[in-house]
Amino acid sequence: MSVHPVPSLLLLGAGAVLLVVAGVLFARGIRQRRLAEGFRDRAVETEAEVVGLEAKDVSLGSSPDTRYFLRVRFTPAQGEAVEAETLTDAPYPPPRVGDRVAVAYDPEHPRRVDLVATEATAEGAGRTSFLLARLTLAVALATPAAWLVLVFVVWTS
Questions:
Q1: 86 & 48 share domain
Q2: What are the tens digits of pLDDT across the range 93-112?
């Protein structure tokens, strides 16, 4: 049995790099979750007018799902009118243009606005980063397994 150094170094090095990438993605997900919780803690509620509706198609599996994000206009306590798109989608059925909705905004960054009906939970924050971290971790763990297959099956023959 002879272990080939270049393929071994490449496979094990790639596994180590992917492990670091998975850790970074996981840390990013935690940061996004904390930012969302921080937003909830300092958010100020007000009423806003719906000035637009943007439909975005999200494909989860084989069936596409349409989510509606509202463009709202409101006046923060310490400033002039702000127009912004909500951070999360509106519950179905979405309000119509011209309707009034309750929103929460960040007083330090008034363009960060969310519907009061959806801002009460931060469970979705960082979800994409957590998913990518899990997938990257799976590939990172499969890479040394592939190296072992090469060592014990291919290179011993």
A1: yes
A2: 888 898 898 888 888 888 88
Question: Do 84 and 113 fall within a single domain?
Answer: yes
State the helix-helix crossing angle for 5-42 and 127-149, rounded to 10 degrees.
170
Residue 93 is predicted with a pLDDT of 83
The CATH number of the domain where 108 resides is what?
Answer: 2.40.50
Helix (H, G, I), strand (E, B) or coil at 68: strand
**Integer CA distances (angstroms), 14 to 3, 21, 28, 44, in order:** 17, 10, 21, 46
Q: How far apart are CA 81 and CA 134, in angstroms?
A: 42
Answer yes or no: pTM beyond 0.90.
Answer: no
Structural domain that includes position 109? 44-118
CB 72 within 8 A of CB 51: yes
